[in-house]
Specification:
Number of domains: 1
CATH class: Alpha Beta
Radius of gyration: 15 Å
Shape: globular
Structural class: alpha+beta
Bound molecules: zinc ion
Largest sheet: 3 strands, antiparallel
Distance between the termini: 21 Å
Order of helices and strands: EEEHHHEEEH
Helix content: 25-40%
Length: 105
């Protein structure tokens, strides 16, 4: 099972066409939040303390989230570069498939 086509929509979603004909639509935000890199997992286990007052976002974080590029990792995954500067995530085909199925519900 592998993606045969990747497209992005104006609504900031990734549309994945799979080799078995299934098509999945996943919002960029869901992909970003599902990142399984060491840094994101660490934040999930030990969330940083909420700052008092207004959070200060960097310019990149304040822009609407988009995917800047995706490139294949071997023949089993994609590395996704997000517009907020985060690019450590490796999304295996299995993960993308599971996320897509969760989004379809
Ligand atoms: Zn991450």
């Amino acid at each position: 099972m592998h993606p045969t086509n990747l497209q992005t929509t104006e609504n900031r979603e990734l549309v994945i066409s799979w080799s078995d004909g299934v098509e999945a639509t996943i919002p960029f935000r869901v992909l970003r939040e599902g990142c399984q890199c060491a840094g994101c997992n660490e934040k999930r286990v030990n969330p940083p303390e909420k700052p008092v007052g207004l959070p200060i976002l960097s310019a990149a974080e304040a822009r609407p989230l988009t995917i800047e590029k995706m490139h294949p990792v071997g023949n089993y995954a994609y590395n996704i570069h997000f517009s907020d500067g985060h690019s450590a995530g490796i999304y295996t085909f299995e993960m993308l498939r599971n996320i897509g199925e969760a989004c379809a519900k």
